[in-house]
Specification:
Shape: globular
Number of strands: 11
CATH superfamily of the largest domain: Bordetella uptake gene, domain 1
Number of domains: 2
Structural class: alpha/beta
Strand order of the largest sheet: 7-6-8-5-9
CATH class of the largest domain: Alpha Beta
Low-confidence stretches: none
Length: about 350
């Protein structure tokens, strides 16, 4: 059993202990006949939405009262629109959940005005996968490795100000001098891939391993697209020979900045409830999530859809968010300056 699976089992034991039989009956009565809506901060064809749909398929089987679960896309501003909605507008009763980028929450830490929430106050339910972001370029550019990008200007596509595609490209430009000309405003990274197909741009950052293995597998295999750098903290088995952004860090201070900018990707597919939902319902949602992502049917369907699964409990997600928000002011300022756009 891997570390993530052990953590899920331990969290499930705690969740079970936290819900008394009487409370469980009350929760079942509340959810019976209701619909739980999962708001996803990206377009319908995005990887985030695919994960949300997979969870929605199996979550009802593990929820008290067996409510219906539906997925609704609410793209905008790199998923900040959805995060704002879940935090400020959605009912705080456990019937609305959100899937959005932890990276979008970093904007709040950086003091960007588009956010209207305290990230530490979300009711974190869990996480479905780590998210390693990869920068890829079209082979026609002549760029074969990251160092080439330091010499040759290349047109990259970006999403909203807080999107991984945008921020990773800006970081590579400001911290390392990459000659990236960035065109922002695409709804999601997959839309940038379509723009590459149309010849509008030549590269994109923030593409996940899952997308490389599925949507882009043929283009990667034929070398039409070339991965040049990723943002995992260590070498990734799916990307042999491809360096990490951390490999180019010149100091411990640089690594702390990179941790703040990219470390959140350890929680690549999180799901959260609004702040202030009743504690017993939060515990029930966490328990149901842990059971759903451990369901062998869920695991088999995810494998068939080529979706990587590396689950983490709600408690673990909350811990990561707390750690990110504990960095020094100097580190936060350097990181904020690196991505401000």
């Amino acid at each position: 059993m891997n570390k993530g699976a052990r953590a899920i089992v331990a969290a499930a034991v705690v969740a079970c202990a936290a819900i008394s039989p009487a409370a469980a009956d009350n929760i079942a009565e509340f959810y019976k006949g209701k619909t739980v809506t999962i708001i996803v901060g990206y377009p319908p064809a995005s990887g985030y939405t695919l994960y949300g749909q997979m969870l929605a398929k199996y979550l009802p089987d593990h929820m008290p009262g067996r409510p219906s679960v539906i997925v609704q896309s609410m793209p905008g501003a790199g998923s900040i629109k959805a995060a704002n909605y879940v935090y400020t507008v959605a009912p705080k009763d456990g019937t609305t959940l959100g899937i959005f980028s932890i990276g979008a929450l970093i904007d709040q830490l950086f003091g960007m005005s588009a956010t209207s929430f305290d990230s530490t106050k979300f009711g974190w339910i869990g996480n479905m996968d780590e998210s390693v972001g990869v920068c890829v370029v079209k082979s026609a550019t002549g760029v074969r490795k990251f160092e080439d990008l330091l010499q040759k200007e290349t047109l990259f596509g970006g999403t909203g100000p807080s999107g991984g595609a945008t921020q990773a490209a800006i970081v590579l430009t400001r911290l390392y001098g990459a000659k990236i000309k960035l065109i922002k405003g695409y709804p999601g990274a997959q839309d940038v891939v379509l723009a590459m197909d149309r010849g509008e741009v030549e590269g994109v950052c923030g593409i996940t391993i899952a997308v490389l293995k599925s949507r882009l597998s043929q283009q990667i295999a034929s070398r039409q697209l070339i991965p040049i750098v990723h943002d995992a903290t260590k070498p990734h088995p799916a990307l042999p020979g491809v360096p990490s952004v951390y490999d180019f860090a010149k100091s411990d201070d640089d690594r702390r900045v990179l941790d703040l900018l990219f470390g959140w990707r350890a929680v690549g597919r999180p799901i959260a409830a609004p702040p202030g939902i009743p504690a017993d319902r939060l515990a029930a949602l966490r328990k149901a999530f842990n059971a759903a992502v451990g369901d062998q049917r869920f695991i088999a369907d995810a494998a068939k859809a080529q979706l990587d699964i590396a689950p983490a409990s709600g408690e673990e997600v909350a811990g990561l968010v707390a750690r990110l928000f504990s960095h020094s002011k100097d580190t936060i300022k350097r990181a904020a300056d690196a991505v401000r756009n």
